[in-house]
């Protein structure tokens, strides 16, 4: 058994289609079949159930997929680290960030990285809140910018920016300033809000806003994606509370009323990660 065989297995476990997997891995379908059969023979377990129409993982295959995905990521990280340990100026760094800052602070951060380390490749991803720390621990990302305070052991966190909440409304909405907001008028509004996970410090700030007016909002829709929420507000389906940084996006037909409620942004990374690329980027940001 070798790493390449494990890669073939994981690729097939993801696609569950021999022809498509073979094309992606740049080998013939028969070669892929031989590699999988060889792996099954060496392990003494059946990894896939096959018939003429379907391919699916066996229970043993599912177990090995879940374990090998993590272990392979760690092995690849170790190899990358060994190659770049004397440089720290080339390679790839993966950064997860909320959509809200795509047009506010992210362009400045990326411009600084590009200027200082022109050979460094930056990969930007957006992931769900509940997956952020898992992705960090499993080396699927290197940095995560979040609006929630980190409480997970092994993850370091530092505040990098302070934003404000904003009320997002259609251009013709009667609200003009924060002073126009009252309990009576807010109770007449339909709200479209971001999905908030239990224990989220960002969700607590939004709740503070509503508590300050002593009312519970009528929530029409929830969404994980701010861009979706903005589109729904533009369609006239309700009003929203989002970070003020969304005002940097192109948002015709909408207005943003800045609210006196701060929402901080935190940079998170693995405490035991000594990758020189990560160290260089952290020094640049801080």
Q: What oligomeric assembly is this protein in?
A: single chain
Report the uncertain regions. Answer: none
Number of domains as seen in the coordinates: 3
CATH superfamily of the largest domain: Periplasmic binding protein-like II
Secondary-structure content class? alpha/beta
- SSE pattern, N- to C-terminal: HHHEEHEHEHEEHEHEHEEH
- What name does the CATH topology of the largest domain carry? D-Maltodextrin-Binding Protein, domain 2
Largest sheet: 8 strands, mixed
Q: Tell the overall outline.
A: globular
Task: Report what the structure shows.
The protein has 286 residues and is α/β, with parallel strands linked by helices. It has 3 domains: 3-71, Orthogonal Bundle (Arc Repressor Mutant, subunit A); 91-160 and 266-285, D-Maltodextrin-Binding Protein, domain 2 (3-Layer(aba) Sandwich), CATH 3.40.190; 161-262, Periplasmic binding protein-like II (D-Maltodextrin-Binding Protein, domain 2). The chain is 40% helix and 25% strand. Strands 4-3-5-10-6-9-7-8 form an 8-stranded mixed beta sheet, sandwiched between helices. Strands 1-2 form a two-stranded antiparallel sheet. The longest helix has 26 residues, at 59-84.
Question: What are its keywords?
Answer:
D-Maltodextrin-Binding Protein, domain 2; single chain; 25% strand; Arc Repressor Mutant, subunit A; 8-stranded mixed sheet; alpha/beta
């Amino acid at each position: 058994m070798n790493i390449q065989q494990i890669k073939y297995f994981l690729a097939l476990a993801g696609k569950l289609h021999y022809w498509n997997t073979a094309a992606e891995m740049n080998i013939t379908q028969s070669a892929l079949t031989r590699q999988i059969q060889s792996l099954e023979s060496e392990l003494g377990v059946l990894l896939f159930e096959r018939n003429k129409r379907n391919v699916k993982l066996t229970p043993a295959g599912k177990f090995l997929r879940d374990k090998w995905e993590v272990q392979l990521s760690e092995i690849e990280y170790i190899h990358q680290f060994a190659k770049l340990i004397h440089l720290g100026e080339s390679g790839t760094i993966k950064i997860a960030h909320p959509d809200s800052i795509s047009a506010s602070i992210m362009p400045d951060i990326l411009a600084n990285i590009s200027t200082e380390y022109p050979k460094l490749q930056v990969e930007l991803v957006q992931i769900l809140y509940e997956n952020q720390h898992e992705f960090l621990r499993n080396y699927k990302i290197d940095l995560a910018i979040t609006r929630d305070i980190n409480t997970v052991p092994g993850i370091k966190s530092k505040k990098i920016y302070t934003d404000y909440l904003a009320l997002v409304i259609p251009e013709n909405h009667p609200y003009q300033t924060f002073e126009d907001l009252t309990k009576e008028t807010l109770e007449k509004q339909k709200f479209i809000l971001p999905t908030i996970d239990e224990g989220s410090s960002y969700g607590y700030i939004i709740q503070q806003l509503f508590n300050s007016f002593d009312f519970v909002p009528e929530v029409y829709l929830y969404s994980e994606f701010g861009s979706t929420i903005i589109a729904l507000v533009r369609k006239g389906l309700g009003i929203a509370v989002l970070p003020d940084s969304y005002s940097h996006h192109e948002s015709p037909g909408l207005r943003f009323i800045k609210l006196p409620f701060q929402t901080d942004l935190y940079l998170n990374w693995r405490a035991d990660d000594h990758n020189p690329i990560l160290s260089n980027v952290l020094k640049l940001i801080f």
